[in-house]
Amino acid sequence: MKKPQIYVDTSVLGGCFEPEFAFWSKGLVADFHAGVFTPVLSALLETELRRAPEPVRAVYSELLGLAGGPIPVDDEALDLLAAYEAHAVLGPRFRSDMLHIALATVADVDLLVSWNFKHIVRFDKIRLFNAVNLEQGYKALSIHSPREVTTRDRDTNPSR
Known about the structure:
Blueprint: E1 5-8, H1 10-15, H2 22-34, E2 38-40, H3 43-48, H4 54-67, H5 75-86, H6 95-106, E3 111-113, H7 123-135, E4 143-144, H8 146-149
């Protein structure tokens, strides 16, 4: 059976070092290392992490070996991004958020994980992204937070 492929956005890696999200982000990273899931990383993520603290970049480097390299920002993803923009799914300031969705959609991953509850992991936005995906001939993209995805036992979270 094929391991589920999970597109990881920048917030997930940064979440490894944020008290509110660390338990779940680190659990997902552990799942990747255990071979439960396959991480899918993008050239956009790589670019965004150039400004990140070294520990965040180190997590990216670890996962890059498991992912087999970043997926490129190609014309197909940019065309889908343009469709999101034409439908005003998000405002122009959030172009990179839309590009993450486009990259994950074009890569045909099983799901995307993010801690971005304002623009990505939000029911109304998921519906809008997926309406455009379907209109453009793609399948709907499943979008969740790491907390919903990791196999890490919720009962072992010391903050709960």
